[in-house]
Structures
1.
Amino acid sequence: MDAPSRGRIDGAGLRVAIAVSRFNESVTRRLLAGAEDALRRCGVADEAVDVEWVPGTFDLPVIAQALARTGRYHAIVCLGCVIRGETTHDRYVATGAAAGLGRVALDAGLPVTFGVLTTETLAQAEARSGGAHGNKGEDAALAAVEMAGTIRRIRASGSAGAEPGSA
Ligand code: INI
C-alpha cells in the first residue's frame, strides 16, 4: 500500500545541523550539496543550517549527539559514504554508525537522519550522490524536515490537550 504523499515539506523556522564525513569526500561533498539544496527548497534559511565535518562515518554519532545536546536544532542530517574494501572493516563502520545514530535520535527525541551510502563501488556511490539514482543527501534532508514538522505537530496537539483518537 502506498504511503500518504508528503506534499510540500515546510521547513520555515527550522534550525538544522548537518554532520558530514570527510572520508570519501568526493562523494560526501555531493551529498552535502544535495542536502543543502533540499533544505533551501523547503524554506529552511541558510543561516539556520550549520555544517560540521567529521573524519569518517563511524565518527558521526558522537558529533550528532553533541549537536543534539546543544538544544539548538530541530533535526540533524548525517552524511557519509562507506565503500566495501578488501576486509570486513567497512561493515563495522557502517553498522556502528547506523546503530549509533539510531541511539542518538531516540535519546534526544530528534530526527537524526541517515544519509550514509553503503556501496560496493565508487561508481555506485556516485550514482547515489547526484547521479542516476538520485542524491541520498537530499533524501536525508527532506526526511529530516518532514520528521521535524511531524514531531512539532504531535507535540502541539499534545499540549493543546487533544483527546486520544480525536485527530
Ligand atoms: N569511513 C568512511 O566514512 N567510509 C569508509 O568507507 C571507511 N572505511 O571503509 O574505512 C571509513 N573509515 C573510517 C572511520 O569512519 C573512522 O573515521 C575511523 O575508524 C576513526 O574512528
2.
Amino acid sequence: MYGAIEAGGTKFVCSIGNDKLEIIKQLTIPTVSPEETMPQVVGFFKEFEKQLKAIAIGSFGPIDVTEDSETYGYITNTPKLKWRNYNFLGYLENHFPNVKTAWTTDVNASAYGEYSVREGINNLVYFTVGTGIGGGGVKNDEFIQGITHPEMGHVSVKKHIDDHFEGICPSHGECLEGLACGPAIEKRLGMSSKDVLATDPYWDIQAYYIAQSAYNATLFLSPEVIVYGGGVMKVEGLLDKVRDQFKKINNDYISLSPLEQYIVEPKLEDTSATIGCFAMAQALMK
Ligand code: ZN
C-alpha cells in the first residue's frame, strides 16, 4: 500500500492506495497549524503502518526540495505563519521510520499524476489556477527543478488593454497570480469567481493571461502537453478561450499538435495530486 498527502493551504487530503493506484481510504483534515493538523495525519496512517511501503507528500509552499540542504523537507517562508520553517518531512519520518518518503510541491504532485496516466508522454507541464496559481513540470519521470522548485504562477504577463486591476500579489502586484488567481478575480469583480457567469466578458481577459502562461511554458520547456487544473479553470468555455488566445499569441511561431490535444483539462479531475503521490511512492520502490 502507498500513502498520499495532498497538503493544501485550506485542507489536507490523506489517502491510502493500492498497487493499481486506486484510493482505498481517504481523510480530509483542515489546515490549521502543525500542532493541530499533523497528529491527525499521523493517526490516519498509523492504522496501515505495517502494510505501508511509502508515503509521498505534495505540499503547499514554498518548500525546500534540495536534497542536500539542511532544511530539506521543510515548508519555508510561507505567508501561513504557523507553518513557516516547519519540518514537515522530519515529523513524518520520526513517526514512520520504516516507511520510505517522497516530497514535492502540491502542483508537482498533480503534474506527476497527470503524467502517470498519459502513456507516451515524456514531458508535461501542469498549472493550477485557484486560490493561487502554480505550475510544475515533469520530464522523463523527474521533476523540472534546480535551486528550488519552479514558480510558474509568478511570471510577468502583459496586461490586457481593458484590464485596470492593480493585481494582488504581495511580492509582484501584477504577476500572473496577482492578476488571475481566484481571489484576484473576486477583488476585481466584487464576487466569487464561481458566481461570474460563463458569458461574462471578463473571461476573455482571464484567458489572455492564462494563454500567456501556456505560451511561456511552450517557449521555455517545450512540453508535449500542458494541463490546466484548479477551480477557476472549470468555468465552461474558458479553456477554449485560452486556446484561441494562445493561437493568436503563438501566431504559428511554434508548430504544435492540435491545440485541443496540447492545452487540456486534467484526466484525473480533482485527484491528480493524490494519484500523483501514489505514483511517486510507487516509483520509490522500483
Ligand atoms: Zn507574484
